[in-house]
Design goal:
Largest sheet: none
Order of helices and strands: HHHHHH
Number of strands: 0
Radius of gyration: 34 Å
Strand content: under 5%
Distance between the termini: 68 Å
Length: about 180
């Protein structure tokens, strides 16, 4: 039950206070006109259209741009609270400048990938062909080298004779016979 983090429980263990908070917040949003008005402000309606893109890129932005800025400012001995403020402003600015460009791409992928999967899942499968198609199944085992002085007709006759025989016994005997 306890982690090495000074007795805090595991994060995935459900707690009654978390469930009560989630149900209470959902109830307040559903029933309160003031909260509904607040979440209907223009900034929230803008964010709502791009929320999935923000979710997808926030980690990348903070771990790449944010950590680079943080390390650079730390080397220059800037105080911690200034570093955190600068990193937050720059990362959120980069995200909000990038989401109008990235949202159509994410939306297109979100629509086309499931559609393609559904199409392939509902199509009839193509007829099964042998693994070595268009070559015969025993192509790798019965190959014979072309001999210059015999000509192609003699080599073709040898190939037909070898193809017609099936190997019996061990693989080494078969290879020795060929």
């Amino acid at each position: 039950m306890f982690t090495g983090a000074v007795g805090y429980p595991q994060y995935y263990v459900p707690k009654l206070n978390g469930i009560v908070f989630a149900v209470g917040l959902q109830t307040i949003v559903e029933l309160s006109p003031v909260v509904q008005w607040f979440f209907s402000l223009k900034i929230f309606t803008f964010i709502f259209r791009h929320i999935f893109t923000i979710y997808l890129i926030h980690g990348f932005v903070f771990w790449s741009l944010g950590s680079t800025i943080f390390i650079y400012l730390s080397k220059n001995e800037v105080t911690y609270w200034k570093i955190v403020l600068i990193v937050a402003v720059s990362c959120y600015s980069a995200m909000f400048l990038g989401v109008p460009i990235l949202t159509p791409l994410v939306s297109a992928l979100g629509k086309s990938v499931p559609r393609t999967i559904w199409t392939y899942a509902n199509e009839a499968t193509s007829p099964r062909k042998p693994t070595l198609y268009p070559f015969p199944n025993n192509f790798l085992f019965v190959r014979q080298a072309f001999v210059q002085d015999e000509g192609p007709e003699a080599a073709a006759q040898k190939d037909e004779a070898v193809v017609s025989t099936k190997p019996r016994g061990s693989f080494k005997k078969f290879i020795a016979a060929v």
